[in-house]
Design brief:
about 290 residues; alpha/beta; Spore Coat Polysaccharide Biosynthesis Protein SpsA, Chain A; 7-stranded mixed β-sheet; two-stranded antiparallel sheet; globular
Length: about 290
């Protein structure tokens, strides 16, 4: 199975923090992620842009870099930076394992996953009593329903039964599911250009809605699928996901909530982020970002 990753630098250059406050930590996590993919699955294929190849190839020269996202966000809002990932999913014709570049493998994919349709990071249940009122910007179902042209699949009769997958990992073996999911996303984009264009006027659709919840509603319509997660959600479990399979940083947002994550940050991330290579790369990126702002 092919190891995949996606990284377009255009959202970062336009000021989207992608859940990271420090460029050095972002690059250190990417370096660790690529090295872990190389170790457990072989050289990853990274779909990126020209700047991404220039930067990431200095962190992991063994990876295979596909420069496909130059100008990709000229037509889409960079608020929806996961659209590049969805394009990567769309381009696949064979089963794949896609991870975010803040996902670090420990033991790697498990043998029993080969018998499944899909494995993701974990589930995030939708609470309709809270979220339909628009009290949470990530799960605003009411705003989504009022958009014109949404497919009937998104008007699920029992939204309480629907869980949105966190897609820091997408281990996809069912390519029919992959095609149906990608077709659904791009159909919504075609039908709602005002929500996805560079000058979009509304904010009812955001990163989580586009990537995670569309797949969640689709899975709710296909109960026969065999799915698993890396991080089961339990009340006693800290939010920060880390176990013997992998760790998913989710940027710096949740690092302080789990001792294991703090250890990664305080020792591995900081040590790697202080290396001369990453310091030099961070300065290059920050300089480009500042030049763009000016």
């Amino acid at each position: 199975m092919q190891a995949l990753a996606t990284w377009s630098f255009q959202p970062w250059l336009e000021g989207k923090n992608l859940y990271w406050s420090m460029t050095q930590h972002m690059l250190a996590a990417a370096s660790m992620s690529l090295a872990s993919q190389l170790r457990v699955m072989g050289p990853p294929r990274v779909y990126t842009d020209s700047l991404g190849k220039e930067i990431l190839s200095r962190l992991c020269p063994q990876a295979d870099y596909a420069v496909v996202y130059d100008g990709f966000f000229d037509q889409y809002s960079t608020d929806l930076f996961a659209l590049a990932k969805i394009q990567t999913y769309t381009d696949q014709t064979q089963p794949y394992c896609h991870v975010d570049l803040d996902w670090i493998w420990h033991s790697g994919p498990q043998k029993h996953w080969r018998d499944l349709d899909l494995v993701v990071h974990g589930w995030e249940r939708l609470d309709t009593e809270k979220y339909e009122l628009g009290q949470n910007r990530y799960y605003n179902l009411e705003a989504r329903r009022h958009l014109l042209g949404l497919p009937q699949i998104l008007h699920h009769p029992n939204p309480r039964a629907v869980a949105a997958p966190n897609m820091g990992l997408v281990y996809m073996r069912n390519m029919q599911l992959n095609r149906r999911y990608c077709d659904l996303v791009w159909q919504v984009i075609r039908d709602n250009p005002q929500e996805f264009g560079r000058d979009r006027a509304h904010n009812a659709l955001n990163i989580c809605t586009v990537e995670q919840h569309f797949l969640g509603f689709l899975l709710g319509d296909m109960p026969q699928l065999r799915c698993d997660v890396v991080f089961p959600r339990r009340p006693e479990q800290p939010r920060m996901p880390i176990n013997d399979i992998a760790v998913h940083f989710v940027g710096e947002m949740k690092m302080d909530r789990h001792p294991g994550a703090r250890q990664y940050r305080d020792h591995l991330l900081n040590e790697l982020a202080s290396s001369q290579l990453i310091q030099d790369l961070a300065r290059e990126i920050d300089s480009l970002r500042q030049s763009r702002d000016n």
